[in-house]
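note to self: the first set is below, dont mix up w the second
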Amino acid sequence: MSIDDKDKKIIEELKKDSRTSIRDISKITGIRPSTVHQRINKLKTSNTIEKFTIKLNNKLIGENFIVFMFVSTEEDLDEALFKDKHIKEVFGITGEYDLLFKLKFKNVEEFNDFVLEFRKKTGVKKTITMVGTITLKEEI
């Protein structure tokens, strides 16, 4: 499916606030409400829009300790590992390490408990971690 300028305008408004009404998106973009509705449905059906979600305040929900972990593996990791509540994003990467994890914790103690257990997992060869000190931009 190709995305044209109208789709891009609609997507930009939904990225700002996925609760924006079709009527408001129509007013902002200058696209008729029925067209906005049809295009959102088309974007959902084609999986261009995978889901509508929310952005939480990390500090208020107790996930203000953010860690990036590079992981080198010896074999494929167990899929169950990725279900851990602290693991927010995982990317396959090139270079010395195989994976990049974005993790969120309440504090350094919670992170320490996690990392000690994580390093024992089958397939994990080595890790290196970096702690985020300030969030300058974060999107979902």
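second set (the one i keep forgetting abt)
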Amino acid sequence: MSKNSNIAFVRDHMDPDMPPPSSEVGVIGWVRRNLFSSVSNTIFTLIAAYIIYLIVPGILNWAVFNAVWEGSDREACATVQQGGALPVGWHAACWPYIGAYLKLFIYGRYPDAELWRVNAVLVLFFAGLVPLLMPSMGFKRQNLIFMLGIFPVVALILMSGGNFGFGAGFWLNYLWVSLVILLVVFGYIKATQSDPMPALKMTAIALAILAIVIFSISVDFGLVPVETSLWGGFVMTLVIAVTGIVVSLPLGIMLALGRRSEMPAVRLFSVVFIEFWRGIPLITVLFMSSVVLPLFLPDGVSFDKLLRALIGVALFSTAYMAEVIRGGMQAIPKGQYEGAMAVGLSYWQSMQMIILPQALKIVIPGIVNTFIGLFKDTTLVSIIGLLDFLGMINLSHSDSNWATPVQALTSYLFCALIFFIFCFSMGRYSIFMEKRLDTGHR
């Protein structure tokens, strides 16, 4: 080779990227990474696959392949002998029974002529909830105002008929109570040597909005009154669950702040409230609200059974929510509190803009777990005579036209499937929000 020969090489174009190995991408790659990444994972995967092999085929045969899908009475659900594979008798799911009782399972005993009102409430609820849960959708503040301020009033009027008829004596008492609240707020803010006007303005606006709401449900809109004793089914489950969820989150935040407060009276009240409600089971709360509470009321004074149950469920879930949020606040480093004070933020400003956003992000799994538990605990109200989704299912078992050995199994499978769909959806949304709000270093 000559000494002057040039052996240098300069690339004048880029070679195309080679595709990744087929064993590292797609379904095969996912299976290798998640199911067979180690010896222990491989063993547990094989054990789980064997358990699924033992259980799932039998469930599918009973609930789908050998099930009865059409019929008008119990005789339709008699499984026909198929080549000797199945004996004559009831040995598979009876889905026509679910179809026959579907309206009862959803609406309870709500009058048929007024079902459009329940359907309107459900449409408004999901039409407001879905955009609120989608981060890409705009107008979040307006949507939140609708869901927390307008929708509850409209739903109450549509479901019950409105026209509660508050008299002049009620409005006079409301005026006196409002004046007392304004004086208490003014005295407290003045004692802390702060400007009382912003707090007074917010309190006055809140009292005015409450007065508008009370007036709205007092107006006669011409709707037929429907007593809560006729409510039921899955609509009842949604009413109890949504009320408990909406009430428990803000009250839980306030109690969590109160438990960490430096004011002894506020801290003592918060501790007593939380420990009291956490120390008794929900079934006891429901029995107290349904049976014992009316005994302490004056003669002629009574509260609706559903309203008493809603208050009990909301207060019970509030105590658990408060502890979840307090755990998130304690996980925030002390430097965050000191930094908020260093830049001149007040207590409420630091909580609103620095502490609570971080704390709520940390405890998203705990919050959603509390919501899921509350959603499932609504089935307990059937014990005090409120026929929710499960209560209506149990009520349908007394119909002799559909009485078969598989009637209860079919209905409970349907109930479990509905609860699983809603609870699983809440869990997946929780995971989605965790990933979206994850600002940690990766």
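remember for set 2: Residues 27-65 form one domain.
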